Amino acid sequence: MPGGSAGELAATMTGFARTLRAAGVAADHERTGNLLEALAHLDVTDPGEVYWAGRLTLCATPDDLPRYDRCFAAYFGGLRAARTRTAVTSVTRHLAGHDGDGGESGDDDGTAAPATASRIEVLRHRDVAGLTEAERAEVHRMLALLKGVRARRRSRRFERAHRGRLDRRRTVRDALRKGEVAVLRHRRHTTRPRTVVMFVDVSGSMAPYAETLLRFAHALVRSEPRATRVYSVGTRLTPVTAELRHRDPGTALDEVSRTIPDWSGGTRLGEELREFLARYSARGAIVLIASDGWERGDPELLGTQMARLARQAHRVIWVNPHKGYEDYRPLTGGMRAALPYLDDLVAGHSLAAFERLSERLAHA
Fold it and tell me: Residue 232: which H helix or E strand, with range?
């Protein structure tokens, strides 16, 4: 559990709150501040006290509880916290404004508990290409917890409302039944999640990142199956949405690996976008292109197809793993051709980058 200085504790628990927000828990900044204030009166090396402090301060509704439990187990390395009356009473007393008597935890010899949370916080910002298999598996486990919430758009359907557009049909029907117009009925447009169309580059230069990107795509598909479409791009365009609908990420990735015929080849994104636009549509969608921009085809063709795509899409976001480095410059032919038609160029090299991308989709 978290230990060390107050700064390290704040960084660890802020990262935990960020993970909860990505999973759909209402762990806003005010609630996070309440958690840190409560932990100042508790033994932060005790998993039970940290668990209940977070549960009582960060969760807002009963629906948050199972998500909180999953995130707590993943973030703190699978630790399970027993329900202790002392922990719950201490946190409750503090939230009620009473001074606790257990605020001092004594000397910390550094061996009370493993620094699992700190290690995960470090992993959040590390490039997945440099991780060990065990570290990459941990990052993938955290990716599976992402709640792929995205912005909503107005649909053509209507629903009943107290205010808004007059619903003439319901108003007249009520008047015929009652003999007079007693109440004016109203209606409004319903909303639905905005569609996300994601292209994942599986060429040789993207090999260190392709699996992680597909894991992120799996989280998006699982969150909104009807509003997410995923394609692999390399030397050919391959739809993989159906394979990613499997509940288990590992099984879904196995199915995807058997479906994609052009792993670790080249990239002809211009030709594949032309094929996509001839067969499908991205009208009103958020388009994610996950690629490093090493285009083997004609960059002019890529620019032409990007212009067509930008006219259709609500927003075009290019996810480049190398964008996470300060000295990165979009100098490859593919990136230079695509750049004028992008709404955003974002990093895609770490868990933290994917968390920020998930938040961007929720407000796009």
Answer: strand 228-233
